[in-house]
Amino acid sequence: MKKLLLLSLLSFSAFTFAQTVNDVPLKDIDVDYVQIIGTGRSLSTKVNVEIDFGQETKSISFKNGTSIKDERGRNIKFNSMMDALNFMSANGYAFQFAYTTNDEKDQAIYYILKKNK
């Protein structure tokens, strides 16, 4: 009986927590457009991906409030910006357009996505 209860609790927790940005589940972001920003990671082939949907961040560091977190609250790591774009598409967003910045301080790729209705 204890095993069944534990299994039920684990199953319930898996469905109640989802990917979040600034503690807001992706499915509950109530805006038409979001911007995902990709920057390279030092000594890594992965990219850092942040989401801006006009949210007010809850922490002192802006970057902590814009990272996509998994069910356990850890930052999701993406292999590439295409990986991030496919992730967002699977979560109900459609690509609109992209642009890049490439100056000495900021080298980033920006994707504008629209939430599917």
> What's the count of strands?
7
Neighbour order of strands in the largest sheet: 4-3-7-6
Largest sheet, if any?
A: 4 strands, antiparallel
Rg, Cα atoms, Å: 16 Å
The CATH topology comes to Gtp Cyclohydrolase I Feedback Regulatory Protein, Chain: K
Instruction: Write down the domain tally.
Output: 1
| Overall CATH class | Alpha Beta
Helix count from the secondary structure assignment: 2
Uncertain parts: 4-17
- The helix content is 10-25%
Mean pLDDT, to the nearest integer, reads 76
Shape: globular
Strand content: 25-35%
Label the structural class: alpha+beta
From the 3D coordinates, which CATH architecture would you assign? 2-Layer Sandwich
What is the first-to-last residue Cα distance? 43 Å
Q: What is the string of SSEs from the N terminus onward? A: HEEEEEHEE
